[in-house]
Specification:
homodimer, about 260 residues, alpha/beta, Rossmann fold, N-(1-d-carboxylethyl)-l-norvaline Dehydrogenase, domain 2, 2 domains, eight-stranded mixed beta sheet, 9 helices, elongated
Chain lengths: ~260, ~260
């Protein structure tokens, strides 16, 4: 059985630390620049303590999970000290494994999900993407992931980066389109609520389809130039939204038969 | 009690005709260019018949719902004949009410949803957008809508057009982003399934938020230029996807504090 410590007390640690402890992996330390964040998390843990140093050389944990913003990982990798045999991993979608090259037992433990503190989440369906420098570490991180999820996948840094890019399109950009649709509705004194059943059904249909492209609807895929013209006209005061409309219409039509 | 007839045997009629009949409005005729489509629908109806003429002057129905692609509605409005007192309405999000100006009791009966033949759908949550040329017609169409939905809204043609535009962003464009994310994943030998839990959670979170903009995540909102650069580099073979990435990143950042 491993003991685990976390560096970082953000959304990922908020979800992972209690789940892994409940699965049988006691959490030792949580290192955080913001002790309040860490305090919130250890309330859900059995015996964890907050530390403000990166010197873990005397820690009893044997897996260290670095769950901090991407741009801080290199600095932490540079400055932290871990016990000689410890596994050190990060949780980033984009950073390569080599960012941890100082540590012989290095790995990646990337849960592909959007985490929000305080929002319940079914971890068992979350894909965990595992990479490691050696077979033993790979096995230990896979076992750790399988203790909370039934979706555990080995992949290299290139694949993980591609998956993260896909996640930006499927997650971040989708969220932004919803934000824009809310503003379009509200500029016309219409509640965003009116669009919600459509969003729910569109996404349910896309995820149930063999390929979302096969269930594409709307003026672009119908080549309904009249409606497209009316929509661009309605967007005349919003140059950026107009560009988005044009470009996504072009992209939908790019794969249509002529 | 009204009798209803439909012009058009597509996805909208497939869902509306049986639902309205079940709510107590007998369906008389279904006019269709494709008799097979109409045949599928009348199997779910009590006593409807398929017609191939637009001459409804001797029909016993008193509400006629034109549910055909937008570009055909004007032609149908020009050529169809209805009983003198009949209500004639279309189901389009973008066409104005005036496209039916030949008919004194004209209206719009626009269900804001993506309809797919054969796919079960909870109509009771679907917003119905009602417009009419006179108060009596408005009342009758509202009553009709309320027989199947608890979300019935009066709005004029301008508002409906704006809502439809919002629906293109929230529905059609969202679906397209999911299609692109699938292709990005599969180009790297990764299954689209890996992205599905993220999509489900992103959308659930966006719809539960006060405003999706407040739960925006990802490299753009973090101004994580390193990751953005890596992503653009990964998209170097796809000029159009690269443009989409740039433009949506710009749009997310447009409203951030400097």
């Amino acid at each position: 059985m491993f003991g685990i410590s976390f560096i970082g007390a953000g959304n990922v640690t908020w979800h992972l630390a209690p789940a892994l402890e409940a699965a049988g992996y006691p959490v030792g330390e949580i290192a955080a620049r913001n002790a309040n964040n860490a305090a919130e998390i250890i309330r859900h843990l059995y015996d964890a303590r907050i530390v403000d140093s990166l010197d873990f050389s005397r820690s009893r944990a044997n897996i260290f999970i670095i769950a901090v913003p991407d741009d801080i990982v290199p600095e932490i990798a540079q400055n932290a000290a871990f016990p000689p045999d410890a596994i050190v991993c990060h949780t980033s979608g984009t950073l390569p494994l080599t960012v941890l090259k100082r540590f012989p037992k290095r790995g990646v433990f990337y849960p592909l999900q959007t985490f929000t503190k305080g929002r319940p989440l079914d971890l068992s369906a979350v894909p965990f993407c595992i990479e490691a420098a050696d077979a033993g570490t790979e096995k230990q991180l896979s076992t750790l992931a399988r203790s909370v999820s039934r979706s555990v996948h080995l992949m290299d840094s290139e694949q993980r980066k591609a998956l993260h890019l896909g996640a930006v399109f499927a997650g971040n950009f989708t969220n932004h389109l919803l934000a824009l649709s809310k503003r379009i509705a509200e500029e016309n004194n219409l509640a965003f609520d009116l669009l919600k059943p459509l969003v729910a059904e569109t996404v349910a249909k896309a995820l149930a389809a063999q390929d979302p492209a096969t269930v594409q609807t709307g003026p672009a895929v119908r080549r309904d130039e009249q409606t497209i013209k009316r929509h661009l006209q309605a967007l005349r005061k919003h140059a950026l939204w107009r560009k988005i409309y044009r470009l996504l219409t072009e992209s939908i039509q790019a794969d249509l038969p002529r």
